[in-house]
Amino acid sequence: MSRFWQHFISDGGADSNRRPSDDPTPNDGESLDAFSRTIVTVAEKLRPAVVNLRVGRGGRGGSGSGVLFSPDGLLLTNHHVVQGHNSIQVRLADGTELTGEVIGNDPWTDLAVVRVGGAAFPFAVLGDSAKLKVGQLAIAIGSPLGFESTVTAGVISALGRTLRSVSGHLVDNVIQTDAALNPGNSGGPLVDSRGQVVGINTAVIQPAQGICFAVPVNTAKTILPQLLRHGRVVRGYLGLHVRRVPIAPDLREKFGLQQPTGVEILMMEEDGPAQTAGLWIEDILVGFAGQPVTTPDDLHRMLTLAPVGMPVPVTLLREGRRIERTVAPAAYPDPVPG
User: What residue numbers bound the domain in which 63 lies?
Assistant: First the structure.
């Protein structure tokens, strides 16, 4: 019998000698207050940097959210929010109305960058989505159904999901959360307990309850330089979709791998570069161009840097064997309009 239960039975649950301050475990009220303080602090810090976006007019109009990430008026949102528009209306948290210019978008990650004129804007800090843990606090801010500056909270439900975005493209390494999202939240930030942006909210599974998704902020940081410079992302294309998976300890020892994870191939495009090179579904990709691949973000970053058409060595784990292949990334195909 545990010491706690021995004490409880013998003393009836009372301890006249213990002062409240001696108990290291906070009571329910204290825990709730700490949780509430975290949400309030993050909301007060981030809400000024979250904007409402409106495109089109009347029945053909639409709205979404965005988050300022620099003081000179650059903001992140979803591609599907601004798709087909070069100019959009941006409403700041204080009610100021501005005109924004879409300066870059990427249908393959469902991300876009908008610029509004001005200076000294409030802005959010972009965090590190690679450090996320399942179960940690997640806070979403946006304009669901037109209700601006709405704050919801939940947890990180899962990592490494693959999602078909609203624009029809498969997006890898998506964050799943149960922080409540609704139409209009798209493009707004998913933030951690420190108030740093860890994702851009992108989709809701309807009519399911509490199944919502965000594009990792590390994906955004990888492509931002190209969006700002070229207005689009020039990247190599392998024609596959992947997820992060752990590498079994016996395989790590057998092949001398230091990395704990690799990326498993879930799907491949017919006659794409990966299929042509002899890669298989369920292969675990652990190396690309001599560099370790531990997450889908690693692979995306390497493909963004890899010259199109130049053969690159890849290392795979397949059915307990280590296999070397050579694949030539192709130019990323133009997305189908719509």
Answer: 47-116
Find the CATH number of the domain harbouring 312. 2.30.42.10
Out of 110, 172, 297, 298, the active site residue is 110
pLDDT digits (tens, 9 = 90+) for 298-328: 898 888 777 788 999 999 999 999 999 999 9
84: amino acid identity, one letter? G
Q: Is 31 one of the catalytic residues? A: no
Checking if the pLDDT of 41 tops 70, the result is yes
Sort residue 239 into left (φ over 0), alpha (ψ -120 to 50) or beta.
left
- Residues 227-250 have a mean pLDDT of 90
* Given the residues 79, 80, 85, 300, the one annotated as active site: 80
Question: Is residue 186 among the annotated active site residues?
Answer: yes
With CA atoms as reference, report the closest residue to 195 among 61, 28, 47.
Answer: 47
Query: Tokens representing 108?
Result: 């393959």
Candidates 186, 283, 297, 300; catalytic one: 186
Residue 70 has pLDDT above 50, yes or no: yes
Q: Catalytic annotation on 94?
A: no
pTM of the entire predicted model: 0.70
